[in-house]
């Protein structure tokens, strides 16, 4: 009797052997369709809370605004799924071994990139910067944000039940618009969706997908915090507060990958596999998050896990099957989008079958035979603001610099060509550029610096313990007006000194400006 019960359990689970899981083609295609439908639905239901105050009462319907636009009877295009449409086109054009360089060509053709790191990629492509450099911190100032995260659903759909394959695909391709924790978010999301095809417990899915990310990654540390607090029985609002208290200081951005990945994990953990509950966990988690992206990502996982039967019939009735749009964020799309969601799903499943076959997965007319994978942690991909100095001026160390997104303009640290732009992580302590130098007989130090129009910052220069200069760097009325500041170091001839250049932003009565550093000319 015990053997028969075990055999029945294996048949229900789709297991056909110790090393494979059987997934019917019908079930695969149905779940892909549900993942597409749910992610669009999650975005629409979360849109009112994007970068704004969180919901405090349940959201139970697709807002009237989105229930079929006048005349067209379709939902509008949004970046939460447009980049997946572009990637799908690229797979159809270039095949299952699509490279990030080829994906870049598709982005150029389709005018992809309207906000955040994705907008930076579009601008960089126009300048002749090629992927994967378009996502690297050397060029992309928003590399740490969640563009790769909300583009990651597709890669999980293409590798059902194979999280390592989905994660590798996501890592390779999401470098088009992200790096390090930005890229980690895309890998995590791809792993979530992939695992949803073979796991029925959202908490197991979250735990396993988190293991794709190296423990040294800030994004993995955030996920571990969510899992630890949730396992200890903490309330989801408490957990969200803990996440923001810990990580919003590091990333002053409502679209940072780290915080929003934590909210996706939290939403799935407490959503219990119910689509409406999962979406509501995302939109009420905390104020000033990327709520529509989080709801979309979490909903896609539930869709892949439960299929179309998991989407309430009333919500399905409120949704159009068409996505249309001629522009996004002021960027004219080439060509304009006019797509059927169900057709996108069918095309995704077709590419998925080709992708799986190209990676040695067995299939017959009725079933896919998916190899079971133990999750393998990917190598660490890390970057800190201080690492920018290797590209700008490796003789100096950068300390105390912070990261900010489009929701907090002027609070970011990045390279703009040959210009270093800084803003402090902690405004009390400021930013420090530091070096140690042995002066000869004729030392000199000149700085080329600037501030944003109408703003200011204070430059302070120390040699050892002595302050050599304190000067307010004020922005011009328009544009960036460079000025050369001469620092008196002539009296330090023949001495070995530690030089510190401070950017202070607590200056009272003035709007704080990022510091623009064009050059440090140091003669020993």
Topology:
Layout: H1 2-13, E1 15-17, E2 20-24, H2 25-46, E3 75-76, H3 79-94, H4 100-110, H5 116-126, H6 147-150, H7 153-158, H8 163-174, H9 181-196, H10 202-210, H11 218-231, H12 236-247, E4 251-252, H13 257-271, H14 275-283, H15 291-306, H16 313-318, E5 322-328, E6 331-340, H17 341-358, E7 362-363, E8 367-371, H18 389-392, E9 397-399, E10 403-404, E11 414-416, E12 419-422, E13 431-438, E14 444-450, E15 456-463, E16 466-474, E17 483-487, E18 496-504, E19 515-523
Parallel strand pairs: 3-5, 4-10
Antiparallel strand pairs: 1-2, 2-8, 5-6, 7-8, 9-13, 11-12, 12-19, 13-18, 14-17, 14-19, 15-16, 15-18
Question: How would you sum up this structure in a few lines?
Answer:
By secondary structure, this protein is of the alpha+beta class.
How would you sum up this structure, described in words?
It contains 18 helices and 19 strands. By secondary structure, the chain is of the alpha+beta class. The strands form 5 sheets. It has a 5-stranded antiparallel β-sheet, with no helix packed on it. α2 packs parallel to α14, α9 runs antiparallel to α10 and α9 packs parallel to α15.
């Amino acid at each position: 009797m015990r053997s028969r019960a075990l055999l029945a359990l294996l048949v229900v689970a789709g297991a056909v052997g110790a090393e494979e899981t059987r997934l019917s083609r019908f079930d695969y295609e149905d779940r892909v369709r549900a993942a597409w439908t749910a992610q669009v639905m999650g975005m629409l239901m979360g849109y009112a809370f994007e970068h704004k105050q969180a919901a405090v009462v349940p959201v139970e319907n697709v807002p009237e605004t989105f229930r079929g636009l006048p005349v067209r009877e379709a939902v509008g295009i949004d970046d939460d799924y447009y980049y997946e449409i572009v990637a799908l086109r690229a797979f159809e054009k270039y095949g299952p071994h699509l490279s990030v360089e080829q994906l870049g060509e598709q982005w150029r053709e389709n005018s992809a990139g309207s906000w955040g790191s994705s907008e930076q990629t579009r601008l960089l492509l126009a300048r002749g910067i090629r992927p994967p450099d378009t996502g690297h911190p050397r060029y992309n100032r928003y590399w740490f944000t969640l563009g790769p995260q909300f583009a990651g659903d597709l890669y999980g759909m293409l590798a059902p039940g194979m999280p390592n394959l989905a994660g590798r695909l996501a890592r390779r391709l999401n470098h088009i618009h992200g790096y390090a924790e930005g890229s980690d978010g895309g890998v995590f999301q791809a792993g979530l969706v992939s695992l949803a095809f073979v796991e029925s417990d959202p908490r197991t899915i979250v735990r396993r997908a988190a293991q794709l990310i190296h423990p040294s990654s800030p994004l993995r540390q955030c996920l571990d915090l969510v899992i630890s607090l949730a396992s200890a029985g903490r309330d989801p609002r408490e957990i969200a507060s803990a996440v923001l208290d810990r990580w919003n200081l590091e990333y002053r951005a409502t679209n940072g990958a780290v915080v929003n990945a934590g909210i996706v994990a939290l939403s799935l953990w407490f959503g219990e596999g119910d689509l409406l509950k999962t979406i509501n966990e995302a939109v009420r988690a905390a104020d000033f998050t990327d709520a529509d992206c989080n709801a979309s990502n979490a909903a896609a996982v539930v869709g892949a896990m439960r299929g179309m039967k998991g989407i309430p019939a009333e919500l399905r009735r409120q949704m159009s099957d068409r996505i249309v749009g001629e522009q996004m964020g002021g960027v004219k799309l080439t060509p304009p989008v006019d797509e059927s969601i169900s057709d996108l799903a069918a095309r995704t499943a077709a590419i998925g079958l080709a992708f799986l076959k190209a990676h040695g997965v067995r299939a017959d007319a009725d079933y896919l035979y998916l190899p079971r994978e133990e999750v393998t942690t990917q190598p660490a991909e890390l970057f800190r603001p201080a690492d920018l100095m290797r590209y700008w001026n490796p003789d100096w160390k950068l300390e105390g610099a912070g990261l900010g997104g489009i929701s907090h303009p002027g609070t970011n640290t990045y390279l703009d060509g040959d210009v270093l732009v800084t803003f402090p992580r902690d405004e009390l302590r400021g930013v420090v550029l530091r070096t140690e130098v042995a002066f000869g007989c004729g030392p000199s130090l000149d700085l080329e610096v600037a501030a944003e129009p109408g703003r200011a910052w204070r430059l302070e220069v120390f040699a050892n313990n002595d302050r050599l200069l304190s000067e307010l760097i004020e922005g011009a009325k328009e544009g960036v007006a460079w000025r050369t500041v001469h620092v008196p170091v002539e009296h330090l001839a023949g001495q070995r000194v530690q030089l510190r250049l401070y950017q202070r932003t607590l200056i009272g009565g003035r709007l704080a400006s990022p510091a623009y550093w064009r050059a440090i000319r140091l003669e020993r």
